[in-house]
Specification:
By secondary structure, the chain is an alpha/beta fold. It has twelve helices and eight strands. It has an eight-stranded mixed beta sheet with strand order 3-4-2-5-1-6-7-8, with helices on both faces. Helix 1 crosses helix 11.
Length: about 260
């Protein structure tokens, strides 16, 4: 059965789109047929993070308006043929699509894909309702800040109210040194508040900015950064593999060398 997963947070700027791009690419690298959907109508960014912005001809709205076929709107990634993007329309508002129409789009995609990842816009308004309309699972992304965690808690309640019971937690941009000095919430602090299963912890990594600007997800790098390894491991955990979490308290250089050795093995 196709797994339909919405990636959401409530608060903007916590890394939902980065997660969507990297998890989609990581799953595709593992021979799964993946489509990532940008549901942020009016403010699309997923195409930029994947480096596909210049190849968009049609969007999800064109499919709904019957101005093109679904296969014409899907943008295939030349680096990884198992991955496709269904872009949002940049010139229309979030109200341009209804939850019923999102369901229609995803129903059309189900039979040909193993994973459908839906990149949810920030907030809990119409864009959020569209994004969760057809989802069966959710990845809730938060940073270890009280405002982000509070918004994530609100979103978890809304997901439960909409019968999405399978949820996974991703904690992004953790800074171990700040956690050790009690200047930042720990992974355990966030888990205790949100109380959903942890699927990944992503350390603060400057290479995220570089990869975003280049349109190349971190998981494509030959020598994976800590964040790239974290994304690759999340993809494996989503498939049910038992992958231990990285020890982010270790000295950076030793930790990175050790993890790379393990990853190569």
């Amino acid at each position: 059965m196709t797994r339909i997963i919405v990636i959401t947070s409530g608060k903007g700027g916590v890394g939902k789109t980065t997660c969507t791009a990297n998890l989609g690419m990581a799953l595709a690298k593992n021979n799964h047929r993946v489509v990532v959907i940008d549901s942020d109508f009016g403010l699309r960014n997923l195409d930029l993070l994947l480096g596909l912005e210049n190849r968009i001809v049609y969007t999800a709205l064109d499919v709904l308006a019957k101005e093109c076929r679904m296969d014409q709107a899907l943008v295939k990634d030349k680096r990884q043929p198992n991955l496709a993007l269904l872009p949002a329309a940049q010139s229309r508002s979030k109200e341009a699509v209804t939850p019923e129409q999102m369901q229609q789009l995803i129903t059309e995609l189900e039979s040909k894909h193993d994973f459908i990842l839906i990149d949810s816009p920030a907030g809990i308004e119409m864009g959020f309702k569209n994004a969760i309309a057809a989802a069966r699972e959710a990845i809730v992304v938060t940073t270890p800040e009280i405002s982000a965690v509070r918004d994530a808690d609100r979103v978890i309640g809304l997901l439960e109210a909409n019968d999405i019971k399978v949820m996974h937690l991703v904690i992004n941009r953790i800074k171990p040194a700040m956690v050790q000095e009690d200047m930042m919430m720990s992974v355990q602090d966030v888990q205790d508040i949100l109380a959903i299963p942890l699927v990944g912890v992503i350390p603060e990594d400057e290479r995220v900015i570089v990869s975003t600007n280049k349109g190349e997800p971190l998981v494509l790098e030959e020598n994976l950064s800590l964040a790239g390894i974290a994304f690759a491991n999340i993809a494996r955990r989503l498939k049910g593999e038992k992958i231990p979490f990285m020890d982010l308290t270790a000295p950076h250089d030793d930790l990175l060398s050790r993890i790379r050795r393990i990853f190569r093995n």
